[in-house]
Amino acid sequence: MREDLFKKLAASVIEARAMAKGGKMSLASKRYLEDRRKRWKALRAAGWRIGTVAEFLRLREDEAVIIEIRVALSRALKIRRAAFGMTRVRMARFLDGDVPLISRTEAGDPSITLDLHIRALLLLGATRKDLASALGGRRAEQKRPS
Question: Are 81 and 126 members of one domain?
Fold first, then answer.
């Protein structure tokens, strides 16, 4: 598993672009990629380990999922606010809150409850499908297995 994670980290945007173009890669891109791989190998040889944030912080799976949910809802709220062209000040007035509350909510502050994230999204017109999509749920086109 660690080797797979290393390969994913070592893979770059350049490789993905090259694959999309049919395997063509510029000489500069090849040099950059090779340099990057050398740096990763040097770090591993020096004793550095590659892992996830959850492993580093020694989080249980449920704790990691809650953090992911909080981040996803915060990101969705920020995107929805920007899509409406709202400033944080205007959104604070709209939600009967204050600007620091909106800032902390969009930043995923742990002191902000998940229900406040959901309430803010719903007040901005989000549907249940929008919430499910933000949380990585199924798309509306997909049907549940019977």
Answer: yes
Is there a single domain that holds both residue 40 and residue 70? no
Residue 146 lies in a domain: no
Token pair 């063509």 is found at 24
DSSP 112: S
pLDDT tens figures, 106-117: 998 989 999 999
Separation between Cα atoms, residue 45 and residue 102, nearest integer Å = 44
Residue-range definition of the domain harbouring residue 12:
2-45
pLDDT digits (tens, 9 = 90+) for 73-122: 999 999 999 998 999 999 999 888 899 999 999 998 989 999 999 999 99
Pull the structure tokens for residue 5.
């994670």
* Residue 33, amino acid: L
> Do 15 and 64 share a domain, yes or no?
no
